Amino acid sequence: MHKKVLVTTAWPYANGPLHLGHLAGSYLPADIFARYNRMIGNETLMVSGTDEHGTPISVQADKEGCPPKEIVDKYHKVIKRSLEDIGCSYNLFTRTTTDNHRKTAQEFFLTLSKNGYIYEKAMELFYCPKCRRFLPDRYVEGTCPKCGAEEARGDQCDACGRTLESTELVNPRCKHCESAPEIRERTHYFFKLSAFQDRLIKWIDSKKDIWRSNVYQFTINWLKEGLKDRPITRDLEWGVSVPIKGAEDKVLYVWFEAVIGYISATKEYFINKGDPDGWVEWWKSPDTETYYFIGKDNIPFHTIIWPAMLLGHGGLNLPTNVPANEFLNLEGGKFSTSRGYAVWLNEYLEHFDPDPLRYCLSINMPESKDADFSWDEFQRRNNEELVSTLGNFAHRVLTFIGRFYDGAIPEPGTLGQRDKSVMEEISATVDIVGMHIQNCEFKKAMAGVMGLASLGNQYFNEKAPWKADKNAGASTLYVSACIVKALSILMVPFLPFSAQKLWNMLGYGDSVHEQQWHSAKEPVKFQSIKDVTPLFKMLEDEDIAEQKAKLESIK
Ligand SMILES: [Zn+2]
Ligand SMILES: [Zn+2]
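^ thats the input. predicted complex w/ zinc ion below
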């Protein structure tokens, strides 16, 4: 049965380029999942965009000495371009500074208010007398009251992952001028999160055996600590203004407003298609499944706060799954945007092809525990696995056909036991890899594809068609070409660029992306192969040394 599948990803802040940690955490797994779902015939929509409000933007604008609008225009372009170039197949990649998003977020606020889940309350806020302004959470730093880490921000502690109220920080200081802020009282709007405690626990319980255990555990622990109402407005100029008379000088808190982007992006996609009501089914129909691909630092917003907002609004689908990834580290250290200790996606793409990176991050995805990216490992996996296993197998088979069978995939003679078992193995791999992707087990899925390439090499060596007569060899070449065909289809979600190249070399003239997943089981056509070239390039030591040196200089 075909269904609708809405695939969403974290909204990157438009205050800098993306790095590999972002890609591995959210965008790549989402893209693999979306591409696969399209191939099994599910109506699939992948949407997201840049988060352009919020204090990280203002912080960057202060740093670069320009208005926030300039910052977000600049980085939206950079981010969007990198995501396209790495092959992320968004149906729409928008931004939160559109009129459509502003209106959608304001309407959402008003509906929650009408339903009784928003109220006004005076709260104590940090005010920096030296900077003469109220300090948003991210402008305050101090010691985490829960775990004692010293570099906690006012909204969240990166060390223990908990969200915080800035006034909970021990030894708070203004991020701007380092002086100790004072506390002043202001009235703000609050979201009645506490009202959803029981409903959320019941809902989360139904996900116990479906969600990743780290996501489930984190969420249930949080819920057991008890939910507190949360302020959803701020004293800032940059943001979506509060749609209430007399409160227009406040803006919606970015964590509240950005998640509504999932809905506004869906709307925008259908508005662009001339079908302004088209989004409704994608949010209200029980036949639509919704997936949120995010990093672990975003878990509470997607498993607690956003579901509570959806429940409070009413009539909207709750998340089907939130397959949050753990963190990717870099050469044994943590990515640090502020220190510039990162491999930036746009810079990577200036030097290397997209697929080798997609491969390395898939086969080593931080799914259930943190993973590490190192340039040596990247080179090794590229040279030994992509070039020597996958690329080499395809190349051997195709060049052999080119040389000894007039460049046309031969019809087989009678298939022997081994030939038949290999054909069965192709079929089984198609099912297993598909199942792993459906379960968001991308490492295992990628390994399954490589396993089939290894089997191909092994089979080709065993059969040694160069020793066999031409007729016996024809069966071997035919079965091998069936493996190559299956590989080119199974590669699509992971290695979309190389998949197309390989498909064309097999003599197919159409797009491999239009093929059904299960057609990988069908035998290859007896057709002429075309323009056979190596699928992947060896990476030389000097290419890698240059990249390593760049990181060493920052470390
Ligand atoms: Zn902490
Ligand atoms: Zn200050």
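The mean pLDDT is 95.
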